[in-house]
Design goal:
Blueprint: H1 2-75, H2 85-97, H3 107-115, H4 124-160, E1 162-164, E2 178-180, H5 188-227
Antiparallel strand pairs: 1-2
Length: 229
């Protein structure tokens, strides 16, 4: 009787252990699938980050040159007669027309967030940095729209008071080979608007520099997260 009871007990234990192992293996498989999906999403986010860095490097040059020319115009506003009309046209074009439009791709981050797989990322710094990044993007885009709006009257003034010397483009893809044909006493309103725009551009420039630095750090952290054993 005892042998029979032991036999049934062993059979029961084998069945229980088999079922438990089956569930364990299945759970391991699910966890592995989730980990692979997370890493795929992070790899795509890495590609987006690299694209954002390329765009922001271009934006950095564009905004820097615009500020530089805006400062040149302000500095020389009372002595423009000492400078060639080509120089004035060049700086007026850069100060007024050098605008940026930042376009980002948040699809992968949104997918990772909605799937609940963000919690699989072991480095909490990555999660916080991604949240801050896309929140920061919204602010940067808003500032860009504000700067573009402020540029409307300036672009109109530059268009009416300049003519093209040629259609050659600079290294950033803008037309700058222009001659100023207007009054050498540029209206105070225009000088004031250029100065006001420059103030916002300097703030935007700091955001771009900050974003470039943080995105570079984020790339390093995500790469380590993907390659961890």
């Amino acid at each position: 009787m005892k042998k029979l009871a032991v036999k049934y007990l062993l059979e029961f234990l084998v069945i229980v252990i088999g079922i438990s192992l089956s569930f364990y293996v299945e759970e391991i498989g699910k966890q592995k699938d989730k980990e692979e999906f997370k890493n795929q999403s992070l790899n795509r986010i890495l590609q987006n980050l690299e694209g954002d860095i390329r765009d922001n490097k271009w934006n950095l040059k564009t905004v820097s040159k615009s500020i530089e020319s805006g400062e040149w115009i302000y500095k020389n506003r009372n002595k423009l007669k000492k400078h060639s009309r080509d120089s004035i046209g060049f700086h007026l074009a850069r100060a007024n027309n050098f605008l940026t439009v930042f376009v980002d791709n948040q699809e992968e981050y949104t997918t990772l967030k909605s799937s609940g797989y963000l919690e699989l990322i072991e480095n909490e710094s990555i999660v916080k940095s991604l949240q801050n990044k896309y929140s920061n993007h919204a602010w940067m885009k808003e500032v860009e729209r504000f700067i573009i709006k402020k540029s409307d009257i300036l672009i109109d003034f530059e268009f009416k008071n300049s003519e093209l010397n040629s259609e050659s483009l600079n290294d950033l893809g803008f037309l700058v080979d222009k001659k100023y044909i207007g009054d050498l006493n540029i209206p105070k309103e225009i000088i004031g608007r250029i100065t006001d725009k420059k103030f916002w551009q300097k703030n935007h420039l700091n955001s771009i520099k900050n974003r470039l630095r943080k995105d570079s750090i984020l790339i390093e952290e995500i790469t380590k997260e993907i390659n961890k054993k």
